[in-house]
């Protein structure tokens, strides 16, 4: 074996992106960069700026929320081009010969939302023949689009709540019918962009006036909108992790999200600003309910054909019913995010979780599987 192949696996941590979850991605990347074993892996931080440029990022750039200001990728580094071949990452600087970054063994896309978590970057990496952490193209795309996600979950026999999908054309040309369909769900309703995450663009509507405003707000993020009947219940979440030895995927302990006063639901500020939420893990629920949560979470993971990890969110109603709200194929990934905390409560600390995900990616081949 030559010297190049004996070197440490090279991991490109890719973050940022062209969507409203740009800053959230940077927060997660900061945690991964701080936890990854530098003695075991050679690490290359690559940021995607808000204008879409890929750049090599200095680890001295700002990765945290400071004085309420969200971080952003500073597009001042050497531009990165992804290509097929032995050295898929190449840097380009004006007036200089392109420089190869060397063999990239795996990409860790700490990215969320459209043009990232939705199968687009996964497809790009497949085209370049590069291994990557997380689910493939189809699972990522279905998991990102709440309308298709619910169709797949329901087809697999999993319990989902009532909803109405508001498509762009229908809202523009047949609004009265759409509003009637939504009113039939009963009040209140939750209005969400169909293909966004981190609670971006979500509103709670109690009447038609609030509903129209909520749909317009969601449409600022996505022309396709999901409207869901409100479900009274506790928010229970469970993480799922692929096995390294071809055994079935395993579920973490379930946890309960408890948000501080002033939040009508688990919104962006509650998720990412300090002291706005608390995760109780394991959740204070009956043992048989916890086991059902874990079983349903694994079934959802398998129904979409997920790889790597996912987080599955449920409502636990006062009459004891479990309703699956959604699955996230690349959940929030700071060390304080829900999925990593659930695994920490199950005995798998954050640095070990990062290592497990990289090892899972390294053992997979690009392409159909």
From TrEMBL:
This protein's name: D-alanine--D-alanine ligase
Residues at which Mg(2+) 2 binds: 326, 328
Binding residues for ATP: 146, 190-192, 198-199, 228-235, 325-326
Database matches in SUPFAM superfamilies: Glutathione synthetase ATP-binding domain-like (SSF56059), PreATP-grasp domain (SSF52440)
Catalytic reaction list: 2 D-alanine + ATP = D-alanyl-D-alanine + ADP + phosphate + H(+)
EC number: 6.3.2.4
Record's GO cellular component terms: cytosol
Chain ranges of the ATP-grasp domain: 150-359
The protein's role, per its UniProt record: Cell wall formation.
Signal peptide range in chain numbering: none
One of the GO biological process terms: regulation of cell shape
UniProt xrefs under Gene3D superfamilies: 3.40.50.20, ATP-grasp fold, A domain, ATP-grasp fold, B domain
Source organism of this protein record: Sinosporangium album
Cellular location(s): Cytoplasm
Ranges annotated as spanning the membrane: none
First-listed, main subcellular location of the protein, grouped into a coarse class: cytoplasm
Entry's Gene Ontology molecular function annotations: ATP binding; D-alanine-D-alanine ligase activity; metal ion binding
NCBIfam families xrefs: D_ala_D_alaTIGR, PRK01372.1, PRK01966.1-4
Family per record: Belongs to the D-alanine--D-alanine ligase family.
EC class name: ligase
Cofactors (names): Mg(2+); Mn(2+)
Keywords on record: ATP-binding, Cell shape, Cell wall biogenesis/degradation, Cytoplasm, Ligase, Magnesium, Manganese, Metal-binding, Nucleotide-binding, Peptidoglycan synthesis
Record pathway: Cell wall biogenesis; peptidoglycan biosynthesis
Cofactor notes: Binds 2 magnesium or manganese ions per subunit.
């Amino acid at each position: 074996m030559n010297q190049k192949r004996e070197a440490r696996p090279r991991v490109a941590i890719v973050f940022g992106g062209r969507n409203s979850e740009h800053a959230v991605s940077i927060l997660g990347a900061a945690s991964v960069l701080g936890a990854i074993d530098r003695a075991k892996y050679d690490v290359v931080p690559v940021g995607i700026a808000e204008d879409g440029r890929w750049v090599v990022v200095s680890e001295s750039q700002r990765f945290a929320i400071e004085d309420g200001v969200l971080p952003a990728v500073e597009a001042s580094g050497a531009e990165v081009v992804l290509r097929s071949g032995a050295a898929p990452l190449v840097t380009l600087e004006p007036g200089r010969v392109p420089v190869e970054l060397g063999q990239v063994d795996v990409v860790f896309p700490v990215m969320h939302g459209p043009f990232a978590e939705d199968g687009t970057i996964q497809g790009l990496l497949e085209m370049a023949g590069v291994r990557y952490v997380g689910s493939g193209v189809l699972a990522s795309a279905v998991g990102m689009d709440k309308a298709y996600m619910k169709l797949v979950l329901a087809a697999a026999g999993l319990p989902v709540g009532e909803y109405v999908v508001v498509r762009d054309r229908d809202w523009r040309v047949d609004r009265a019918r759409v509003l009637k369909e939504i009113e039939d769900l009963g009040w209140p309703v939750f209005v969400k962009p169909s293909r966004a995450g981190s609670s971006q663009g979500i509103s709670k509507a109690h009447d038609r006036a609030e509903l129209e405003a909520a749909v317009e707000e969601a449409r600022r993020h996505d022309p396709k909108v999901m409207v869901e009947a409100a479900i009274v219940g506790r928010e229970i979440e469970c993480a799922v992790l692929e096995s390294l030895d071809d055994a079935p995927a395993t579920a973490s302990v379930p946890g309960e999200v408890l948000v501080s006063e002033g939040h009508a639901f688990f919104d962006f500020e509650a998720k990412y600003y300090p002291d706005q939420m608390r995760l109780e893990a394991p959740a204070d629920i009956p043992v048989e309910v916890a086991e059902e949560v874990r079983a349903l979470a694994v079934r959802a993971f398998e129904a979409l054909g997920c790889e790597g990890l996912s987080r599955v969110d449920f409502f636990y109603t006062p009459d004891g019913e479990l309703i699956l709200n959604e699955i996230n194929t690349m959940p929030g990934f700071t060390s304080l995010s829900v999925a990593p905390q659930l695994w920490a409560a199950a005995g798998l600390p954050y640095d070990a979780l990062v290592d497990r995900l990289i090892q899972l990616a390294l053992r997979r081949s690009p392409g159909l599987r």
